[in-house]
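Dear Dr. H.,

I hope your travels went smoothly. While you were away I took the liberty of generating a structure for the chain from your last submission, since the lab meeting agenda had it listed for discussion. I wanted you to have the full record in hand beforehand rather than looking at slides cold. The sequence, exactly as received, is reproduced here:
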Amino acid sequence: MLLKFARLRPTKKYEEWEKSVANGLIDQTQGNMYIQRAEVWFRIYFPKKGRAGGDLDNKMTSIFDALVKARVIMDDSYNCVERFHAEGIYRKGKGGAEIIIEDLED
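The corresponding predicted structure, in token form, is as follows:
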């Protein structure tokens, strides 16, 4: 049996979002932090209830990608992010996220 998988590419809207978030992270961190060993806490706010509100792990993946692109963390593999914690909270009409990154090298 031969299985074929479609190669998914990010949408232009997602690429613009990621660039915007990465630029915001660079502004907040003065760029080039490159944390090599981290523990990360996520608090993701969902503006809608149910499936329409989104998916916690997809949102974390997107944020991890932006953290790497902004050079806040070296990588989002287990070699760099040793532990992470996530909490999803419904907040009517107000999506967003709070992220705390602890540098384990200190």
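Two observations you may find useful: The longest helix spans residues 12-29. The longest strand covers residues 81-90.

With kind regards,
E. W.
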